[in-house]
Structures are given as C-alpha cells and as structure tokens.
Amino acid sequence: MPERGTMAYTIGIDFGTESARAVLMDTESGEQVTTAVSRYRHGVLERSLPDGTSLPQDWALQHPQDWVDSLEELLQQMTRAAQPDRILGIGIDFTSCTLLPTTSEGRPLCLLEEFHARPHAWPMLWKHHAAQKYADRINASGWDLLAYYGGKTSSEWLWAKAWQILEEAPDIFHAADRLIEGGDWIVWQLTGQEVRSICQAGYKAHWQKGRGYPEAAFLAQLHPNLPQVLAKLSPPHPLGSRAGGLVSAWANRTGLREGTTVATAVIDAHASVPAVGVTEPGVLVAILGTSACHLLLSEKYLAIPGISGVVEDGILPGFYGYEAGQVSFGDIFEWYVRTHAASMYGGEEAAFQKLTREAARLKPGESGLLALDWWNGCRTPYVDASLSGMIIGLTLTTEPPHIYRALLEAAAFGTRRVIETFEAGGLSVEEIRVCGGVAERNKLLLQIMADVTGRDVVDANVLHASATGAAIYAAAAAEIYGSVHEAAKRMGSRKETVYRPIQEHVPVYDALYAEYRRLAEYFGGGTSDVMRKLRQLRVLS
Amino acid sequence: MPERGTMAYTIGIDFGTESARAVLMDTESGEQVTTAVSRYRHGVLERSLPDGTSLPQDWALQHPQDWVDSLEELLQQMTRAAQPDRILGIGIDFTSCTLLPTTSEGRPLCLLEEFHARPHAWPMLWKHHAAQKYADRINASGWDLLAYYGGKTSSEWLWAKAWQILEEAPDIFHAADRLIEGGDWIVWQLTGQEVRSICQAGYKAHWQKGRGYPEAAFLAQLHPNLPQVLAKLSPPHPLGSRAGGLVSAWANRTGLREGTTVATAVIDAHASVPAVGVTEPGVLVAILGTSACHLLLSEKYLAIPGISGVVEDGILPGFYGYEAGQVSFGDIFEWYVRTHAASMYGGEEAAFQKLTREAARLKPGESGLLALDWWNGCRTPYVDASLSGMIIGLTLTTEPPHIYRALLEAAAFGTRRVIETFEAGGLSVEEIRVCGGVAERNKLLLQIMADVTGRDVVDANVLHASATGAAIYAAAAAEIYGSVHEAAKRMGSRKETVYRPIQEHVPVYDALYAEYRRLAEYFGGGTSDVMRKLRQLRVLS
User: Fold this and answer.
1) Domains A9-266 and A278-459+503-541 equal at CATH topology level
2) Is there a contact between B392 and A534 if contact means CB atoms under 8 Å apart?
3) How confident is the model over B169-176, as a mean pLDDT?
4) Checking DSSP bridges between strand A283-288 and strand A309-312, what pairing results, if any?
C-alpha cells in the first residue's frame, strides 16, 4: 500500500465494440484523473474484410491492429496526465467472447499474408452470430455442464466459434496454435506472456474450477477434432492478479515504466461490479445499455435454470459470480424513438425529452398497455433469440407517451423476471445497483425499476464503469491494495442516488407484472410458438 | 312501372351521426342525379344538453330539430333538381338504435318545456353507451332468444336503452307514450303515421317474425315495469313498402307533391345491400368505414354463435338477413396515421399515401408482425368491448410500413373470421362485395382482403350507398318496380372492380391467419383475460 500522500495511479482500458476508452485513476481518492476515447479505424467488419473480401450474413469481425493502435494512443494520453513512475498498474477489460486464432508467438493469423483474405482467420467479435448452427449442435447434445450456463451455450461463445473455424476452415484451425480472447491477447502483447483470464474462460469457454475446460471425450462426440481446441487454450489466472510486467517495447512506445504491473484481463460487463462498489452477495449489479447485463455474487454454487453462467472467482475472488441478461433493453426505447418519435418531435433528443416528460405524468396502469421486452430475443430466462416484442392493450385512445412508458415498464418487468429467476434458484436480491449509458440518461426508468421490483435502485453514478473496474483490478494486481475487495471499497462508487419504490405504485405493478409473467410464459415458455413462426415466415417471404 | 322514357325519380335520405345526406336517383338509369349533405347544427351531444345541463360519461344524444332541419333543407335541394311531380318516392335510412321518447302524437319529450333539461328525454344515439349495465343484466338472464343475436344484447340496442330510461327517469318513462327509432320518427313526421320498420325492430328490439317483440312475462322478470315498453312500440312493417303519403305540411315546405310515397325506414348499413346490387345469398356485403358491418342473405333460419343478428325479411323481403361486424376497422389505420404517421410524414393524407406505397411493396409475412384488430373491442365472434388491440413480432428492424401493413392485414383477418363464423354456422360466402369510405379510399386493403380470404373482393364503386339504398326501397314502395329485388337490379351497382386473390399470397396468409386465429382464441375466447384486466387497471389508475 502506498504511503499516505504518495500518489499512486492505475490505468483501466476498456475495449468496446466500436472504440476503446481509458481512465487514469487516483487509487487513493478514487477519482478519475483523466479519460479518453479512441475509435477503431475499421469499426466492426460486417460486410467485408479490409481487402474487400465480402462476408456472409451474421458475421462480425474486428481488426487486431485497431486494438493495438488504440491501446498505444490511450496509454500515451494517460501517461501524459501523471508522473509515469506513479502509474503502478494497467488493467484491461474487453468484450467477450471475442476470439482470434494466432501463432504460438501470438501473431494473429489474419495479419499473415496467406490468411489475410480468409474471414475465419480474423477476430470474431462477441456479436458474430454465424456460428449458431454449432451452438445448436452443442445444445442438442444433452451436455450436463450446460446446467451451469442456463441450459444452453451461445453462438457468441468460444466453443461454437472454435467449431465454426474447425469445420469451415480446417487449415486455419490447424495453423492456429492458440485460440485466444481479445482481452487475453492484449495482456500478451503488453507482457509478452500468454495469461488467460478466469473470467473469460469461465463464462465463455465453459471452464469450471475443479473441472477445467470441457472434457476431451465429450468434445470428441461432437466432432473428432474438436478436442484439439484444448491444446490451443491454457489454464486461467485469477482476477486482480499480476499477469506480468510491461515489456520494454511498450514502455518505449508509451512512456510508462518497463515492468509496470499488467493485470489479468476481465470481461467488460464484469469489470463494472467493483466499479459500482459491490463486493458482497445480495446486490444485483445491472449494467444498462442497449442490452442489460446482470451480475450477482454469492457464496453458493448453484445450477439455476435461465441464468447464463456461474463461475467461481469469475468476478470477485472468493465468490461465485452469476451472470444473467436482457438482450433487449435500451434498444427498445431507442427503437421507438428512432423509428417513430424522432420525426414526430423534431429529432431523437427532443423526442426522448418530450416522451420522458409525458410518460412521467402517467400513473402505473394508466397506459392500459403491457409489452414483452423481447425486441431482440430473450436471454434470461428463455435463452431464445427467436422471441420477439409485443404490445397488448392498444385502443383508439393510445398515444405515443403511453407506448413509450409501456416500453420502459417492459424493460423493468424483464429485470424483475431476472431477479425472480435468481430467487427461484436460491439467491436473494436485496437491492439493484445500476450503471451504464441508459442508467446515466434515463432516470424515469430507474424509478419505474424501483416501483416494479419493489427494491431500491441505486444509481452508482459511475461514468466509464468498465474502465474504472479494470483500473481497480489493476490496483489489486499492483498490490496498491491487498485485494480487489479493498480496492473496490476505496476506488468504487461513492456518490450514489437511491430510487426507492413509491409505495402506491407497487401493488399496481404487482398486478401488471403478474400479467407480464403469464404472457411471457405463454409466448416464451413453449405453449405458443407464434413468435418463431413469424420469424420463419419473414425469412421465407 | 313507368313508361319507357318517362322519367321517374326517388329520393334517399341517409341520417348519419354528424350529418344527413340525400341522393336523387333516376330510377331507370340508376344514376345519382344530384346529392347533398346537411350537417346537424348540434352534432352529437356528448358533454351537455343545448341548455348547458352536463351529461355523464358514455352518453351520446342527438337533437330531433337537427334532423327536421336537415330533412327540409335536403328535400328542397333534391326537389330543385327534378320535376317535383316526377319524384315518386322518398326513402329514409337512419343510424340505429337511435331511440327517442315521444307523446302519442309523436312530439319528442325533450322538446317539451318540462323535460327539456332532462337527459333521458333526448334521443339516445346508437353510440350512447351509458346503458351498459342494463345490457349486462339482460345478458345475465339466460334469455334463449339471444341465440339469434350472437348470444348478447348490446348496450346500443333498444331494451338496454328503454330500461335505462325506466330505471333512471321513471317520470319520463311514464310520460313517453311511444319509444321510437329516429328513422321511424322521420317517417311519422312525413306521413303523419307511426309506421315502424321491420329492420330496426328486428335487429335492435329483438322482434322476430312469428314471435313478435319479447314476451311480457320474460320482461317482467327483469323489471316489473319493463313490460310497459311493449305498449310504447307497434308492430313492424315490411321494407320496400309504402308507409304513407307525404302530408301537406311537408309538401308545402319542400315543393314535393302531397301524397308522395314515403317508404318504411331502414337501418343505414342495411340499406347498402340493394345499393351494391346484392339480392341473393352467398355474397357478403361489407360496409367498410371506421367500423365494418357485414350483411348476408340466406333462405335458412339459423342461430349462429357470434353473429349479431338474424331477422326474417330484415334486409330484403323473402330472405333471412344476417348481420355481423368488426367494431374496429378503418379506425385502426386512422389511429396509426393520426397518432404516429401524420407528424412523421407531413400530414395525414401524405402519411396515408406514403405508408400505402411502402406497405404495398412488402410481401405477405415480410413484416414479421401479426396484429389483433380489436382496438375498439370485438363484435364478431366474441361480442366483447373489453378486448383490445395487440401487435406481436416486433423487432429492432420493424419500421412504420411494417406496422401499417400488419394493421391492414389484421382488419382482413377479422373479416376472414367473420366469414368463418358464418360458414361454421352453415352459411356459405362465395364473394365479398364492399362499399363505404374505406373501400373507396384504400385499394391496397381490398387486395389484402382478397388474398387473406381467398375470395374475390368486388368493389361496388357505389358512393353514398346507404342513401342510394334508401332510394331503391322507395322505388319499390312507390311501385316503380315490382319488388326491392327488381329495383336493386336496376338501380344498384353496375361498374365494379374485382380484386382477385393473388395465388402465391394465399398460402402465406393461410399460415398467418392460423396464428391470428390461435391468438384470437387465446385472448378473446376466454383463456386469457389480460385485456380485460388492463382495462380495469386503466380505469382504476
């Protein structure tokens, strides 16, 4: 621990979908000294590779050079804001599973001449969905381990993506000595050592403590060569630990000291937990963006139907970390504003303001509407991308603010369903602690979430929560603090806003939620398959 | 029958909700010589009486002086367009049940000083809904006759309204020597004789041939004084018959010949049947406006669940006339245009044009959406005002033209459900023949109706169908033709446009309709009561 008055800083770098963001944190005051953003030059490769090779539907790739360029730019900027020798640690968080094949030295295959025009050689971004059929095959296998992953693996996760490369581009598969997460790859660049994260391995590669990665015998049943993936992985390391020291090349490029501690990487959403100051069970961390991610700590190890994953030490050492989610969240209201309200009210911002004002005047139940929040499918509890949104209760007196409020309420009902799924599985949720762009912007939604869930919703008021979390892990890894817990207590959120349930709203929302739940079970729980059929007819048309 | 070359005209006057319309028809050519509209000075009295007395919610009254003023103005205009002595008949159609209490001489009680400030003394317009609780009591009685009225009487019909007056204003009830439909009251004014119409009596007062009005013994079970209503009615007369001759006072006011034939009145929707040239079973007449009314002739007398009414000779002498309906039809698309699209596309007309163009480019199923057309409740088959609209299949790629097309499709699915309700009851429907404002304007909808129902949709291209029909009944009553059938053949629609089903659309709509029907049965058929609960929560909020 530094002496009082001796400044100690850490850097957190958050690799997102379109850009990377850095924060430089004062580890004692918990203040963000500076922050910067660097957009990826190539963005998301969805239509074609940089050389023009076109991509099929559902592909989403990134360019590893973009990551490196942003990393260099951001580290340089952070270094200019403090004495370089007082910057004691670097933490990395990254979207996940963002998977790339590399040589044994960590060179991305896509940067080699021979594989440059081959889509499967490029990093598959988390939202690359072209591996769905491999996920389907894994899910049809009756694999017992999936009980700890909500019953299904995802097309977004490691095994589906690895299998896609194996099956569709076997030469690339065989040329790949390593298959590695983007976050772990960045750590490798900075330290010269391949150090995998328990977070990425646990949530995305089905690694479980005591069990390790999936068994070769099981993988062989899926495809005879799939066990070869195991040799391209490596055992994961704990969060908040030192992965290695900054190599001289990166010290030279950035002005940082050689040997500066680099922490094990972490998934972006998961890094938010210490950032919002959560270090104990019972507080649900909800990261509210276009989608919502829910994280919960517990001392219990449970296989809970509908919960996307549980990993021991996967978020905070000493706890089982649980993950759930709503695939559609802020994007539902954004959809309504973009497709309807923006041109009605003179732009998206004006529409957002106007609808928020008018929706805030409505009482619970007054809209007469109820919506299912599945515009982009449902993760918890149904893990079903073929589900879709619905609105019921429409009449000739329905006006846009009614619809807008019903969409906010639907998102909150979805969050209550997540909580009930946790509680039905044996984990209690006392309080919800929120961060993310939608939490920063949509305070009406936070009050509705409190009213709908009957729980305090605490707005952590943390900007750049993922990068802040990465800097917290770095502070533990650099031994500025004795643990991630301690670092989180000192550097995590402190100026909170609490939204308490308005008592007269609670029974009305209880009644509405009972209807939401019945509709959800009817359309999502297997009784009606109309949503799937509509998608099929749409594809066929 | 007039000699060839001898001109013979009839006048049809259509009393609507906000205005009355007249047509002067050349009975030989079937051409509309002239047409005129006269708005009611007081419109619909929904908030207060003319003297300022305020009205409770759900009330809707009219002023009888408005009817008389419009009648005089319109008859004068028609008379100026032809030789008055060649105008041989006057036909009246009217909204129904529009009920007023009068003295034995036909003087409306509301025009008497003592009752002028009393709401119950005024004509209750068809859409007066404040008698709902009396309708509920009648429906709870288990009355066997209701099997011929879709299982329920309506708050809009005679018995609920009469009971409301009896219970809430007994002095007015006792002062009313007559309770009479607006159309019959106009005939009384013109002829000096109270001649009731079989159409209004049959569909709205539950009069049935051979059985007459409801039995006193049954009515007494509902309320001891309800049988007294029977003494305020009188036996109905056939359609296309002469109710009487024009009295001298009205001849003087209008320039028409004294003694000019005045036909028995008819309900506005029902008058459309001869106007569109339908005189036989198997052709469903669909009057498409804000709501849709469906009329079908048959030689069979059947009690069909979900069909609103069957009356022998109720539309055309010699046939059983069946009535069904969609409470929400054009008002659904109008709702979307008004609340959303108008301000998006620069006005309602521009929005209608733009959405129609874009929706026409979509293939069946391409929207991925399905809607239930119950924005204003459902008449056929569920007879349930507490039902509401829904849209399912919403995704982040849903755009306004998708929604607009889904709403058109929902209206067409509702029409298919009406047809299937008829067919399940034993009546076949070979063809659909349409008229009304929405048919005139929305040709895309007509094609979708053909594709969805798999039947030819014939656009009768008749403007002012109700008034035209009234003039046709008048031609029969004046014995210009030997029957309504013959008059309809000569004066009804002749220049038709046929929309034939596009064969590749039919199977896709069959699949979508199967889903529509399942959803309808789930939400309307009693399995789920979420729509009713949402309305309750809305009222309580």
Assistant:
1) yes
2) yes
3) 98
4) unpaired
Kindly report the number of other CB atoms within 10 A of residue B54's CB atom: 9
What's the per-residue H, E or C state across A310-367?
A: EEECCCCCCCEEEEEEECCCHHHHHHHHHHHHHHHHCCHHHHHHHHHHHHHHCCCCCC
- The pTM for the full model equals 0.93
Report the greatest alpha carbon distance in chain B: 69
A534 vs B368: CB contact, 8 Å cut-off? yes
pLDDT at residue number A385:
86
- Out of B344, B375, B399, whose CB is closest to A394? B375
Is the confidence at residue A359, as pLDDT, over 60?
yes
Average of per-residue pLDDT across A379-399: 95
Average pLDDT value over all residues in chain B: 96
Whole-angstrom Cα distance, residue A335 to residue A315? 32
Q: What is the ipTM of this complex?
A: 0.93
Name A448's Cβ contacts closer than 8 Å, sequence gap at least 6.
A405, A408, A409, A412
Q: For B97, phi and psi rounded to 5 degrees?
A: -80, 115
Model pLDDT for residues A474-494, shown as the tens digit of each residue? 999 999 999 999 999 999 987
Nearest to A335 among B376, B396, B531 (CB): B396
Closest CA relative to residue B123, chosen from B152, B147, B101, B144: B101
Q: Verify whether the Cβ–Cβ distance A389 to B394 is below 8 Å.
A: yes
- Name the minimum distance, in Å, from the CA of A332 to any CA of chain B: 7
Please name the member of A339, A345, A395 whose beta carbon is closest to the beta carbon of B375.
Answer: A395
Render pLDDT for B466-504 as a digit per residue (tens, 0 to 9). Answer: 999 999 999 999 999 999 999 999 999 878 999 999 999
Give dist(CA A8, CA A25) in Å, integer.
Answer: 8
Angle (CA) A171-A177-A179 rounded to 5° is 95
Whole-angstrom Cα Rg for chain A: 23
Contact list in B for residue A343 (CB cut-off 8 A) is: 343-345
CATH for A9-266 is: 3.30.420.40
Q: How far is A475 from chain B, CA to nearest CA, in Å?
A: 40
Of A398, A508, A540, the CB nearest to B541: A508
Place of tokens 């066997």: B144
Smallest CA–CA separation between A517 and chain B, in Å? 11
Q: How many helices (H) and strands (E) does chain A have?
A: 19, 20
Answer for the pair A237, A197: CB distance below 8 angstroms, yes or no: yes
Q: How far is B373 from chain A (nearest CA, A)?
A: 9
Strand partners, A54: A48
Average pLDDT of chain A to the nearest whole number: 96
- Partners of B375 on chain A (C-beta within 8 Å) are 394-396, 398
Give the number of other CB atoms < 10 A from CB of residue A47: 11
**In the CATH scheme, what is the homologous superfamily, with its name and number, of domain B278-459+503-541?**
ATPase, nucleotide binding domain (3.30.420.40)
What the block records as the tokens of B18 is: 């906000």
Interatomic CA distance for residues B506 and B503, integer angstroms: 5
Per-domain boundaries in chain B: 9-266, 278-459+503-541
